User: Fold this.
Amino acid sequence: MVRNVLGSLLALAGATAAVWSPFRAWYDGRHGRHYRLGDLFSEGGVTGVRAELFASPFLPFAGAALITVVGLLLRSRLLVGLAGVIVLGFTVLWMVRVGQAEGSLAVSGDEGVGLGVGTGLAFGGGVLLLVAAAVMRGRGGRRAPVAPVEPMEPTYPTFDGPYEPGSTVPPEDAPTVTWKRPPMDPS
Assistant:
C-alpha cells in the first residue's frame, strides 16, 4: 500500500510538471505553448509561427495527465508508464526538431538563451512518471494466494524383514522399504 501511495504522489507530481511546462520558457525565452505541435512532424521543422494552446505540446501533455489519473484510479503501472513515455517522447522529439532548426541546442545561461525551465519541467515530469510506474505495486488481486506450508514430522524407513547388518544390498527376499508419513489435514 505504501508503494502505491508513494507512486501515486510521484505520478501526480510528474503529471503536474508536464502540464505546467508549456507555460514556461522552453527555448530562447519562447514558451512551450507557442510551438506548433504540427511543426514536430512536418518537414519544415520548428517555425516561428505561434500556436493556439490546444495545437501546442500542451495537448499531448494534458492527455498524458488524463492517462495518469486513469492509471492511478485503476492502479495500472502500464498506464502510468505510458503517460511517462508520451511526455518524454514529445519532449525529446521537440528537442531534436529545435536542434535541427537552430543547428545546436544550448542550456540556458545568464542571458536566457537556450533550453529553458519548461523543457526541464517536461523532461523531469516524464522521468517522474516512469519512476512512479516502477515504484507502484499495481493491483494485488491478480496473484494466486499461496497456501501456508505446514511442518511435517520427519519420516524414517522401516524394514519389515530380515536384513543382514553390514550388507550394502538387501537380500532378494527382503521386503521393500516403506515410508510412513503423517496423515494430511485437509483443512
